[in-house]
Amino acid sequence: MSLKGKNILLGISGGIAAYKMPMVVRLLKKQEANVKVVMTEAAKRFVSELSLATVSEEPIYTDIFPARLDTAADWTQHISLGEWADALVIAPATANTIARLAAGLADDLLTSSFITLRPNRPRLVFPAMDGEMFHSASVQRNLRQLEEDGCKVIAPESGFLASGQCGTGRMPDPERIEEIIEEELGDIGKSLLTGRQVVVTAGPTREKIDGVRFISNYSSGKMGFALACAAARRGAEVVLVSGPVALPTPDRVERIDVESAEEMEEAVTRFHQSCDLFIGAAAVADYRPETFRAGKIKKNNETMDIRLVRNPDILAGFAAQKTPGQLAVGFALETEGNEAYALEKLQAKQLDMIAFNTYDGKSSGFEVDTNQITLFTADGTRTELPVMEKKEAAKRMLDALEKMLEKK
Ligand SMILES: Cc1cc2nc3c(=O)[nH]c(=O)nc-3n(C[C@H](O)[C@H](O)[C@H](O)COP(=O)(O)O)c2cc1C
Q1: Phi, psi of 243 (to 5 degrees)
Q2: Domain spanning 7-185: CATH superfamily
Q3: How many Å lie between the centroid of ligand 1 and the Cα of residue 178?
Q4: Can 371 be counted among the known catalytic residues?
Q5: Segment Phosphopantothenoylcysteine decarboxylase: which positions (predicted)?
């Protein structure tokens, strides 16, 4: 992964950690990224414009209003910087600037560039401040707001702070900042998934018995969420249709929450025509109670029969109508290592790829953070991956899918 050719707008606000930023610019320039620096007035007190201009090989941007009116100038820099940038990185982000961003103020070039940044471009915010400040109610509230608005907030590190105290609030070192920027932005533009629509289903479904009870399974949604996150990082337009799970929505992902298999099917069907890649990672309940009884069923009898009926097969539904340009991917989870079942499913449902994983309750399958997957493709390949983090497994799956897209 590389940042070569990426337009990175670095927003620097007035915290002591600003002294690290010329080094960050150097590191990004070494990767041949295009870097422009926008500073707050306070930031100029902490790091010199001259240093930053020299290392970025660009003028430093601070004023919304041009200094002189008698020369040709970009009169609307408050918009054009946001249009230019592939990503905005705000480091350090002071408590004051965080509050202004969360409130939607546009009273300087940094805040207005934040607002005018084109949609789907990553916004990375590196809060840096004294530990007490960082944990204050207002800073935490404003950071939550920024996350809700689609920013990636990079948690500060613990250690010695400029205030002389030890605590949380330290901005990572330049090399680590470079690494984080690379992790967040490196995939975009280079991937075949950039600009394509990817629909991922995740989590369990709940099939209601009565008003307070349901049939479900142990799916945590982690694999589907990891896939949605990895695809979004490659610049895909991701729609994540999720059953009830306790996971935060990955950045730049449109999430649709559903409960039952029928609701999931309805949500997914809307994207049948438009999506390029459909990944069915949800553990959709195969059956649902035939009837739903409102209220709570009383325990009047020794036994109770619940008649179950088959749920729709959401993935097969997509695969049956897909065009040659679309890919359908499924999972086959088995408690025993029965690969033949996965192959059968691949063929029966006309999928392009199936990820076969076993459920051992420890390192693979539901709930855990790791998975052991074997990928089978319609053209006869078999790729066995070792046990790895679901996040890593998601990347490996997308790599394999990109190869398939290449051939389409
Ligand atoms: C020596 C010194 C160090 C400071 N360090 C920080 C800091 O690390 N984080 C922070 O949020 N504010 C810090 N401040 C306070 C900010 O500079 C102040 O809130 C300023 O208004 C921020 O303006 P800006 O957000 O527009 O850049 C510091 C102030 C001084 C005098």
Answers
A1: -75, -175
A2: Flavin prenyltransferase-like (3.40.50.1950)
A3: 23
A4: no
A5: 1-197
